[in-house]
Amino acid sequence: MSGQELAELFREHVSLAYRVAFATTGSSQDAEDAVQEAFLRVLRARDRLDPTRNVRAYVARAATNAARELVRARARRSCHESAAPPKENAMPREDAQAREERAALRGALATLAPEYRLPFVLRHAEGFTVDEAATALSLPRSTVEKRSKKARALLRRALGVAGFTSAAPATLLGVLPRVEAPAALADKLGAALSSAKAAGTGAAALKGGIVMKLIAGIVLAGAVAGAVTMSLPKQNENGPEPLPAETPVGVDLPPDQKYTMGPIVNGGAGKHLDGPAGSQAESTSLTKGHNIDDVGNIYWTECQYAVIRHYLEETKRVVTLTGSAQGILDGPLSRARFGGWSYNSTNLMAATADGKHVFVLDRGAGQWRHVDLEAGMVSTLGQWHHFKNGIFIIARDRCGEVYAFVTSGQDPPDCKGYKKLKVAPFQGIKTYMGLDHCALDVEKMRFYWHARGAPKMCDLKTGKITQLTSTGNLRAADTSGPFAGMKWHCPTGMSISPGGRYLYVGGGDSSSFYRMDLEKKYIHIFAYGGEIKGRGLPKPLEGGPFSFQDGTERDKKCGLGRWPAAGAFNNLGYGAWATAYGPLYKIAPVE
Amino acid sequence: MRFCVLISALLLPAASAWAGENLTPEVLLPGYEAADAYRPAAAFGKDVFLVVWQAGRNETADLVGARVGKDGRALDAKPFVISKAKDCQARPRVAFGGGNFLVVWHDLRNGKDYDVYAARVSPDGKVLDPDGLLVAGGEYNQCEPAVCFDGAAFQVLWRNFYGKGYHIYGGRVSPDGRALDDSGALVAKPPSKVPFHMGTRTMGTPGLLAGKGGLILAGARASSLHVWRMKDGKMTGEMVSVPGKWSAEPGFASDGKNVLVVYSIYMNQGGRSTGERNTGMVLLKGEGDLAAGTVKGAKVTPKPKCLSATPIIDGRKQVRHPVVAWDGVSYVAAWDIVLGRRSKKPVHDAVLLRRVSAAGEPQGQDTPVAGDFASPAYRPAIATDGAGATLIAYERHPKTGDVPIKIAFRILKK
Q: Sign of torsion, CA A237 A240 A242 A246?
């Protein structure tokens, strides 16, 4: 590509690059930096650029990647600083209504995960075709379509909650003033490009500490596939990378939100069948530690076979992720071995929302294990000295801190402080002993658990413990109403909604899932598991929140089965549940 | 006491090895393109053992095989491909009849659901139906097939999804490689009522054996194992509801008179599960000769006996994947077991074997076949020449993560 062509390319696409970077970073300053970086990469790759191909998509991809890297780097440097809200960009003055609508849209956009935000912005704000957006984001076409659709639905819902019931997100976005790159950016860009030209793209540039950036550039150009591996963080070197500072806080859906629920894998003894998801796929009965990432992939352990399996949203398949014969071996997913997990433990693992990491307590081995899904490798993080006790939750906050909570089967004496595990590289890991069936609201730093009795909440910042209900046998009269009148006996499983408003509790003998609205202080049956003979347990609430995919009589009752295990929700309100010996369900909000 | 149990656990394998079982040294079969090897199956015919397995996992799995001589030599320098179709070919089973082997498996080449495919392999290692012939297709899954030869045709059973759970269907493949029954016929259904917590009415993986005058099959029906007899491809009555909750993974062998059924079972004590999982076995009297056999109440052993004599090591014994064969003198059963003590030393899978008399009595002690902490052994397959040579093949897992999982075997001689 000639110098003149390059200059034209820059002029033509600088605003596009800026808007894409802004959508990723939420900050005009960061967007400017990302654009500079993106065009530096374009410059370095100019010899390989084919002007006859889709340059617009190429530039968008470079800007997206540069912006993502910037956000990650920033998060690493100052992850404990509170995430700054997206800055207002220079916009013309509008009438109040339009301004409010756009503000609501920008607010809603900011809550979307970048995986959903970017396809939506490219498609609806930049007018990219699906193919162009797929090229720009290095994603399959179908994924772009799905994510864009999902983003639209989520935005519509968010706008509805904000009172803009008639607003169509894509339409609103279409009338947003198109943000142009600041004029100063062009000057900066020119200066940066000049210096880059002077430095060249050879050894001098490499010495400038931009090796990784160049590798990314090579990957962008698709020239060296092997470089992808080089650009990945080394195993076990720094532990998981911190979450980007702009990682959105999960949003709770409204109380009257409707859901669908369908089986991902059926339960039962002695069966273990991968393949198309649904009742056709089978588990070996005790699926535990369910997690769901923000793409909708669901992860779980199978107690009888020491394997981790997962459901892939994109292919709708159930696949054994890792684990084979029992033993202890690090290495590729297909050969890694685990010492196994307990027959009766819950929440033995945690998957990160970005779907890149799974952490699991390998009780049989007495080790913390790390499954790096991008590298396709399993590694041992360190020894777990208290392996007699089950791990019940692992969670990461926005700063990348990993919290591990374990049980000793007794109530905690208090809630003050944490014990830090001194196992490299998990110097920051925090454990809390003496808990049972727990959930962690990482945003509010509230910890929920129950120990053979009522659900309790601990404010981890102050150490204050609050008991949420009374203890006692669960009875029909107790199953719907304010907290004060509630009684629990032997609840099983617990999970928290993404925004921290709802606490879901498995009913133990009652075989139903209950939802505690922590804001309204109200509890009701969320998913009815059917009546167990002789126990006289309650009927479900009229018009419960679920509809069912196949409409069978059994599924109208949910058919959850006994001993609902801990479920999980992702930041978009999708969830996964299972019961002992029963199916594993995926829960999806109705759009 | 606990110390004694631990000492017993440590000494037992060594002690049982003195019992005089004649096992050839372990041989690793060559791998296929560095792919991990899973789920071996084996059969004997025309003086060779054929071992087949799944090369790779999930979407990448292909089917390959290799031959082994009666003297324990691997006859093929590298495995031959049985099917390398798109997507996943997995869970093979194999039987010999009509001069050739028939390999059956489930196949995801259509990208939507599993179908059952089969391919004949000649004793000289030639694949006669490259990439396989369709035995059972159609909507939903047809999966986890079992196969035997009844003297006229290969009988194939598989699990057939019906919308909520699985039935067992059956069909035949002729010795010249034609599927004789389009989509097969319903063979067994789950009971109309299942325990609340079981969820769906479904049938587990079938086992299949050809006997004089007919066939017998077993399948996990809801939470217990049932054994049926069949004649001319139709069920003629249920023989036995095998006791024990959560029974699964059935295997059969017959000495020509009786039938030994082995299966994985959760042990119960006073109606409550102990959490222990063992390999149960029941001897069915006279059912090897189905024409003369009784239909009901034919159990010689009123309660399932446990195959594994290895003491409970971690409070809960984990014994799985039992297989059995009649070697002309006695039954030979093999299985895998989790050894080690979780709180003291790391656990690992190992393969053990034990002889069982024609009267259904376990003989001697468990004999270790393979598997230690550094290199576990898992999922045995068994085949015998009926004259004293029994091949036991299994997954041999590597010491380090850069080495593929391979299939290994040993041959037990009289």
A: positive
Q: What is the DSSP secondary structure assignment for residue A421, as one 8-state letter?
A: P
State whether A532 and B400 contact (CB < 8 Å). Answer: no
CB contact under 8 A, A267 and B398: no
C-beta separation of A371 from A397 below 8 A: no
Q: Do A268 and B202 touch (CB under 8 A)?
A: yes
| C-alpha A448, offset from chain centre | 20
Q: What are phi and psi of B150, to 5 degrees?
A: -100, 10
Q: B346 vs A364: CB contact, 8 Å cut-off?
A: yes
Handedness of CA B196, B199, B201, B203 (dihedral sign): negative
Is the pLDDT reported for residue A98 higher than 90? no
Sign of CA pseudo-dihedral B61, B65, B71, B75:
negative
**B249 and A270: CB-CB below 8 Å?**
yes
User: Which residues of chain A lie closer than 8 angstroms to B402, CB-CB?
Assistant: 331
User: Does ipTM top 0.85?
Assistant: yes
- How many angstroms separate the CA atoms of B282 and B304, rounded? 5
Of B58, B204, B397, the CB nearest to A325: B397
Q: At what angle do helices A130-137 and A55-77 cross, to 10 degrees?
A: 40
Q: From residue A119, give the alpha-carbon distance in Å to each of A132, A456, A516, A573.
A: 10, 41, 35, 19
pLDDT in tens, A550-572: 333 333 344 445 556 667 787 77
Helix (H) or strand (E) holding A11: helix A3-25
Q: How near does any CA of chain B get to the CA of A136, in Å? A: 27
**What digits encode the pLDDT tens for the residues A130-142?**
888 887 777 778 7
The 10 Å Cβ neighbour count of residue A222 is 11
| Residue A154 φ/ψ, nearest 5 degrees | -65, -40
Q: What is the DSSP letter of A46?
A: G
Helices (H) then strands (E): counts for chain A: 13, 30
Q: Which of A334, A387, A581 sits opposite B197 (nearest CB)?
A: A581
Which percentage of chain A shows pLDDT scores above 70? 49
Chain B residues touching residue A508 (CB < 8 angstroms): none
Q: What averages of pLDDT result for each successive group of 10 residues across chain B (414 residues)?
A: 37 43 94 95 97 92 96 95 96 96 97 96 96 93 93 92 88 94 84 57 80 72 72 68 69 85 68 59 67 44 66 63 93 89 72 91 90 94 95 97 96 91
| Confidence grade of residue A202 (pLDDT, cut at 50, 70, 90) | very low
Read off the pLDDT of residues A482-520 as tens digits, 9 standing for 90 and up. Answer: 454 555 555 566 788 878 888 887 765 556 677 788 887
Give the 3-state secondary structure percentages of chain B, helix then strand then coil, rounded to 5: 5, 55, 40
Phi, psi (rounded to 5 degrees) for A404 = -120, 125
Contact between residue A443 and residue A396 where contact means Cβ atoms under 8 Å apart = no
CA distance A5 to chain B (A): 44
CA–CA distance, B413 with B353 (Å, rounded to integer)? 13
Q: What is the pLDDT of residue A145?
A: 81
- For the CA atoms of B22, B23, B24, B25, what is the dihedral angle to 10 degrees? -130
For B82, other C-beta atoms within 10 Å of its C-beta total: 29
- Is B57 within 8 Å of A334 when comparing Cβ atoms? yes
- What is the band of A183 on the pLDDT scale with cuts at 50, 70, 90? low
Please write down the HEC assignment for all residues of A574-590. Answer: CEEEEECCCCEEEEEEC
Which pLDDT score, from 0 to 100, does residue A562 have? 52
- Contact predicate B159/B166, CB 8 Å: yes
Q: Is residue A374 over pLDDT 70?
A: yes
B275 contacts in A (CB within 8 Å)? 343
pLDDT of residue A102: 66
